[in-house]
Design goal:
Residues 101-128 are annotated as: Disordered. Residues 110-122 have a biased composition (Low complexity). InterPro entries: Spore_coat_CotF-like. This is Spore coat protein. The longest helix has 27 residues, at 40-66. The chain is flat and about 65 Å long. Helix 1 packs antiparallel against helix 2 (40-66). The chain starts with 11 loop residues before the first helix and ends in a 16-residue tail after the last strand. The protein has a domain at 3-75. It has a two-stranded antiparallel sheet with strand order 1-2. It has helices at residues 12-36, 40-66, 78-104, and strands at 106-107, 111-112. The protein has 128 residues and is mainly alpha-helical.
């Protein structure tokens, strides 16, 4: 309808920005679905969808950037990036250590080992 009158629904740049924003949101939702999936095949499906959407988002960003439709934010200092990477790796290592620690303290049929000197959960009135 709009193309017959040489009019468009909205300016191309606005439409592409809307699509780009929607792709970013979709990636976040796929990532959440991936992390919450209990079934390996569903998890793989959402992982694949996430990766495909990231590729499309990257292609659209490059197209818009090449056509001066998207201005990237200012460049970050390498030292700031390195600091963020170091903090993320540290947090990841802490999480892995926590998981290993908790996994090694579980025995039998998923029952946690009772530590000496600590009351059981049944006798702790503050445990919920």
């Amino acid at each position: 309808m709009y193309s017959q009158n040489n009019m468009s629904f909205m300016p191309e740049q606005d439409l592409l920005h809307t699509i780009l924003t929607d792709m970013k949101r979709t990636v976040g939702e796929y990532t959440t679905a991936t992390t919450e999936s209990n079934c390996q095949s569903v998890r793989q499906l959402f992982t694949d969808l996430t990766n495909d959407t990231l590729r499309l988002q990257g292609d659209l960003y490059r197209l818009m950037s090449q056509n001066n439709m998207y201005s990237a934010s200012s460049k970050a200092l390498r030292v700031d990036l390195d600091k963020q990477i170091q903090e993320a790796r540290k947090k990841q290592q802490e999480c892995q250590q926590f998981i290993q620690q908790k996994s090694s303290s579980v025995r039998g049929y998923g029952q946690p080992m009772q530590q000496q000197g600590q009351p059981s959960q049944q006798h702790n009135p503050y445990y919920m």
